[in-house]
Design brief:
By secondary structure, the protein is mostly beta strands. The protein has two helices and nine strands; from the N terminus they run βββαββββββα.
């Protein structure tokens, strides 16, 4: 079967950044499962998977705009330290901020006695990403998977 709208796809991958640093891999794990056409993976990778089939191997580089977006400096803000309920705030901590567009996970990138700098960008925003992919299986999605919007079973969502 060819990867197209509503296909359940299982694939193995290794993800590297523009400098060749490995960021993630499915090696030694179950393959990643996604429902094609349902925005379960980044748009650039989903577009590259279109038309492929089980057994295909590819190495693709995805531009930031088709991955996690460009870095947006307005997503980095300095806020008064007193707005945080936690006493011990340090770089790397994650908090959920309430915004007009809903909750947003932010990461602490700087701390002073008076302020905390938080970054709401995705950690991979602004990065060119390279995926080394091997497609393991392509099948028609079940009605339940289509209703739920994701693949069930090994490598997919478990209920």
């Amino acid at each position: 079967m060819i990867i197209s709208e509503n296909a359940a796809v299982l694939f193995h991958y290794t993800l590297t950044d523009g400098e060749g640093n490995q960021l993630d891999s499915s090696k030694g794990k179950d393959p990643l499962a996604y429902l094609h056409g349902h925005k379960n993976i980044i748009p650039g990778l989903e577009q590259e998977m279109e038309g492929k089939q089980a057994g295909d191997v590819m190495v693709v580089t995805i531009a930031p705009a088709d991955a996690y977006g460009e870095r947006q400096e307005q997503m980095v803000q300095e806020v008064p330290r007193k707005t945080f309920q936690a006493e011990d705030i340090h770089v790397g901590m994650r908090f959920e901020a309430q915004t007009p567009n809903g909750p947003l996970t932010v990461v602490v990138t700087g701390v002073t006695d008076e302020t905390v700098t938080v970054d709401g960008n995705h950690p991979l925003a602004g990065k060119e990403l390279t995926f080394d992919v091997r497609i393991d299986n392509v099948r028609e999605a079940t009605e339940e998977e289509l209703t739920h919007g994701h693949v069930h079973g090994a490598g997919g969502h478990q209920h």
